[in-house]
């Protein structure tokens, strides 16, 4: 971030950074999350792959950067799971809802949800990100033979909750206080994870 | 339906029917489900409102017809709720999953889910249909002060399940047998409805 926002840096650096970001949008859009590679992005931006890592870190970092989604569920959710097990469902639902109550998260999150589900280009993107970066990390914390099913059931209820409350805005779930929704939905998440 | 498929009807009838259907698509798209009226549709099609009712029945019938969705959740779900209460969750999840396992339902259902969530025009359509035709009927069966919240929580998990399994096709939930998903998700629906 220092590089990005620093003053007095030599011209050319920000050009390379912008070229990499634009190349990443193209490559993710064309090949999906799984198909896009840092090498391919570097080649399209006409820079060395090391420079991509220098500016943007790893592939999920780069994805988070180009989608500009102000949360990192791939980092936050496994961290949240590591607390006391009996309240994991509550912590996850509360984290997601309190995040989406922040306008900058909600605005970008609604766009991500809409495009993830509607677009032929973007659906594989988000599926790839979830399948590679989020769900296996959740599954690893669970350490159960049916961990993939458990993680994807959690994703189904969290996504459904966000869509019903913030995208479609169904009466009832759209108007309920966060605490009420946590009380109703946390036991679902808890059961999908551990029971 | 006899009118639609009958033979030997005078020419002009099918023209009027097609004009009404086209007018309905326009009016629903322009005004949303709530804003569209049978009168407005009749006026746009240059026919009498009685003819709209004659060909298509009520507004939800007309909506089902023009979206060509081969299920009527507004009729089916309340019917399902009326059976033995302790298995209502299971009946709902099984009904929805077994319906979506039929290719003609799945194909159209994926389109409806995608457009419902993505489109600025279609989102109010589906919200209006759910809010006016499905959720109040579910809520009426529940007869509880928080019935609207309960019904919308059910909708959130059913929608999330369908999106995760059939649209985004997340590993785990996309591969699981119907019986496995019924066993995992039915208790959620049961709890949202009655507990």
Automatic annotation (TrEMBL), chains A, B:
InterPro entries: Homeodomain-like_sf, HTH-type_TetR-like_transc_reg, HTH_TetR, Tet_transcr_reg_TetR-rel_C_sf, TetR_C_16. Pfam families: TetR_C_16, TetR_N. Keywords: DNA-binding. Signal peptide: none annotated. Gene3D superfamilies: Homeodomain-like (1.10.10.60), Tetracycline Repressor, domain 2 (1.10.357.10). Residues 14-74 form the HTH tetR-type domain. Residues 37-56 bind DNA. This is TetR family transcriptional regulator.
